[in-house]
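Sample entry (433 residues):
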Amino acid sequence: MTEVTLEYEPRSFFIPFHQRSSRYSSIVAHRRCGKTVACINDVVVKAVYNKKKHPRYGYIAPTYRQGKEIAWLYLKDAARPLMKGKPRESELSVELLNGAKITIFGADNPDSLRGLYFDGVILDEFGDMRPSLWGEVILPTLVDRKGWAVFIGTPKGMNHFYDIHEKYTHDPSCFTLTLPINVTNILDETDIADFRRQMSDEQFRQEFLCDFTAAITGAYYAKLLETPTGGPAYDSTLPVFVSSDLGYTDSTALWFWQEYPEGPAIIDYEEADNQALQYYFDLLRYKGYEYETIWLPHDAMAKSLQTGRSTIEQFLAEEFPVRIAPKLAVQHGIDAARMIIPSTVWNLENDRVGWGLNALRSYRRKYDEVKKIYTDAPLHDWTSHCADAYRLLALTCKRATIPSTSMKSAGPPKYGFSLEDLYSCQPKRSLRI
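Predicted structure, serialized as tokens:
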């Protein structure tokens, strides 16, 4: 037996975290608090004491590049006194003296995580990852070994990281820690005053006061959705409308709503990825709703190389009442969404609707690191497909005002039916494809 002295000295406010016995934990901490360093050292200590066969641990960053830049050096430094051999630079992993392996992953490549097992994982800046990653990819990797998970990050609106932190806060079996600057007291008062002068109030509250309610800088809808109005659940006496954003390798998003005189009532939401169209046909039927119109994006008219048929042709073949949504510039759709949000009510009892609301709150403009400005283009991330589907809803609900010119086809129809059948009326059952 060899005695090893680690160089890591935990800050006092992280000691309860290191002493925890909970399987699931969440840490919300201000910038430069040291949460990544604390978690990396925590996983190294827990890994070296693991007596199971072939222990395996993972640190997951929003992207592989971020993991390499943020945590790889910390991991090598923390594991060096306990390391077996040299660190494996090509796969960002280290092996400890007891055979435990710790690897850095990126959430931008979820397939690299499928099929693995873990004794413990750290999800750093979970709010920047796709929400489905936890339930669909990571959680199953912990089942066999009864592995633990730690979610860490700084607030970025009331998104899925907020949801999981709130859930764990009210669950006595879980551990949570919230560390704003007035709790850690590690920042100089002069620096804090300087931050306040140079940052907006929303930025300072978010980055240093750990305030999830602060609107995200550059967000399109966050302020409008701070207090969404609750609405009814599904009313079986009214038909249901659906707006969609379709994808295969990317996500497909579906908003379900019903029309009321005051405005649309959002009753349901669904999102999935890497699924064929048949999955969504089955999902739409499983819901049991009486559909009035299922609105598809303009690119649904493009023919697939695999099937030789367009998405809209496949929907029609399944006898769904589909129409093509108007094709407008993204910014015009965002403006339409902003107009209808005040008159929209939401079924807040439906968790999927709540998830969609969080995505809409986090939908924001892209930041140009060179020019130091927000561009006019939206950032493409986990919120994009949800927001794109909602833009279609805004353009097609009864309260929407759409220029008539936008409804025209960009070119001659190439189908066995008129595009006017789709733009102007419900598709007839007599249509043949």
